[in-house]
Amino acid sequence: MNAQLLFAHKRVLIVSSHPLFGQGLKLLLLKRSEADVQVVGIVSSIDEAMLILEGQKVDLIVIDYDDDKVNKEEFLARFVGGDHSLRVVLLSLKEGGSEAIVYDRRTMVASQINDWLNSEMSLPPDEPVVQSGKVSPQGDMSNRRGAMKHGIRAGILIVVLFVIGLLVLNTKRLLPPEASLQAGPIDRLFSLHFIVIAFLFALIVGILTYSVIFFRRKKGELGEGVYFKQNSKLEIAWTVIPLVVVISFAVIGSDVLAQTQRIDPNALQVRVVGQQWSWRFEYPEYGITSTELVLPVDQQVLFALTSSDVIHSFWVPEFRVKQDALPGMERELRVTPSEIGDYTLMCAELCGKDHAYMNAPVYVKSEGDFNAWVAEQLAAVSDDPVVRGETWYKQYGCYVCHSADGTEKIGPTFLGIYGESVAFEDGSTAVIDDAYLMEAILNPGANIVQGFTDAMPKNFADQLSEAQISDLIEFIKSLKP
Fold it and tell me: Is the domain of 114 the same as that of 176?
């Protein structure tokens, strides 16, 4: 199709503040075009253009692309996609300039038009002809073939990236081994998330990479790309599909949560107490207190979690599930260990200076080995108050702040302090005896030793019996330099 048909029977309005551009373009249109072209005016502002438009019909507005005094954005906003059935051409007549950007009411098409002002006014044979927002059949077929090629290539790249993403985001490689019944459904949910992540990564990065390689602006190209305002099908798709995915994950997640909280009436009960920066495990069925968490395999455990100071969080990575331990209340967590082995309990809530070291060993044993451990713990209760005091010293986390060998920690060392004189922050002094140690344990904020802060928990009166406190004092007495 001859490009002069674009201007057949056209009434053209030229917009430029440069007289040479306006008059030159007028002469070119009238002399070189065989079409019936009428230049209805040459203006330099939107107001002048509106005056002409009110008085007569205009089919085409040609704007001087290189004229900085002309507000091109205002013209485009006013006449492109508005009530006027107009086409707007941004035209450069600089030396060597051969670029034009064509707009109409429904579409904005960017086309490179080489030598469109020559005597024949013809388009390159491989360019689609734009007329009234439509493309010629030949150009349409060429575009379809080109789009299909690009779609296949981009699709292959997306598939390759998707496969690589699945290999990288493999739960068996990224996550620690499963060691509880609760870990199975959680890992399957993780896998679904990783599949979606890998797909979205491949889709976004694949399209971006392909576009950068094949659709980048080549050297010497000055034209604009194809522009469109909306695509209702695309907008509906990217709204409905994510909505369906999110709702699906919500349903699956709810089912996984229900599986992890399934109740076994014969569950072993363990009370877990977190404090800065240690863990204590109490087995009320056996009357055992331990600093090690020992569990039978294939039996559900009901943990009652609490804290004696700040918020801590109970987390064994191999068990997958996690629960906060809050001061002043108990929260439940159910775990069914499925693999015999040694693991590590970590605090997953930032809780202070030594948070990173707030770990405890976890041993999952066979039923027979677990029963043997219970018997061993019950038989280990000593008649010696010093031995019992050392046990309470470890089980109740006293060792975290008070060393038994003179090492400097948050609190004063216990080594050799009994019978010594101690100075307090208020300037007073006292001799460390049984009465002092009893008050220091039950009311630690009453007298603060010089050089230390009031950091000791205030609830040991609720945790320790009078007999246990007496054992602790005997243990402290036994620590000689």
Answer: no
